[in-house]
Amino acid sequence: MANGNAGTLYRGGPGMWSWVAHRITGAAVFFFLVVHVVDTALVRVSPDAYNTVIDTYKTPLVNLMEVGLVAVVLFHALNGIRVILVDFWEQGPRYQRQMLWTILVIWFVVMIPGAYFMLKHTAETLFGSA
Amino acid sequence: MSKAPTLSEAKTKALPRRNWEMAGWIFMRASGVILIVLVLGHLFIMNILDGGVQRINFAFVAGRWSNPFWQYWDLIMLWLAMLHGTNGLRTIIGDYATKGTTRFWLRMLLYVVSVGTIVLGTLIIFTFDPNLS
Fold first, then answer.
1. B43: contact with A, CB 8 A cutoff
2. Which CATH class is domain B15-127?
3. I need a surface site. Which of A7, A80, B54, B86 has the fewest CB within 10 A?
4. Domain residue ranges of chain B, discontinuous segments joined by +
5. CATH topology of domain A14-127
6. What residues contact B40, with CB distance under 8 A and at least 6 apart?
7. Which residues of A touch B36 (CB under 8 A)?
């Protein structure tokens, strides 16, 4: 590696990229959350207004974006646990890299059935049920 | 009568901001742990369980919020997620907005959006009317 700080958390390497990913996913979830509170607020306007907006959540494109949202939230949650372990577990800093691969494997394993159930209806609508 | 402050007293007085940042640092971790349960539970129920998003409509919301358990689940999730996210974005603004006035106004915008969203969400949870037409 080009820089002489390889092995520290935030100067190059997977440790830094996980930090970048934590920021990007965190900011993305925040903006979604604001939008989501506003769309839910339509339950105070009328059932029709709410149902109309929620129906867009059921369309194939937005459905796919929901899988993205869950993927992003799940990464942020798992990496958050890793950050806490790095901070509070005495062996945390030593195993930060192994913990990163571990959470990525968990993320992948959970996302497979997760994506399957989230996209099941959309796939059946687009391609017909088997 | 008055004696010189000890080193630890002097440090505490000289660095009130650092203690505030420390509280924020702890809050991010404490709220994060609670949010893992609340948010992942919410996503699982809403997007994956029993047909996921396809079954959500006004009647579904009415059914859930007839139970105080889900009202308070959503309330705590709303407050913790908004405060956690607001503090995260405050940090990000602090890191990238190097000009003092830009940083100030970005943070003010953030706080206005944040307070507005928390107030709106809280009102919605507790003023929900299942008989609205």
1. yes
2. mainly alpha
3. A7
4. 15-127
5. 3 helical TM bundles of succinate and fumarate reductases (1.20.1300)
6. A73, A74, A77
7. 77, 80-81
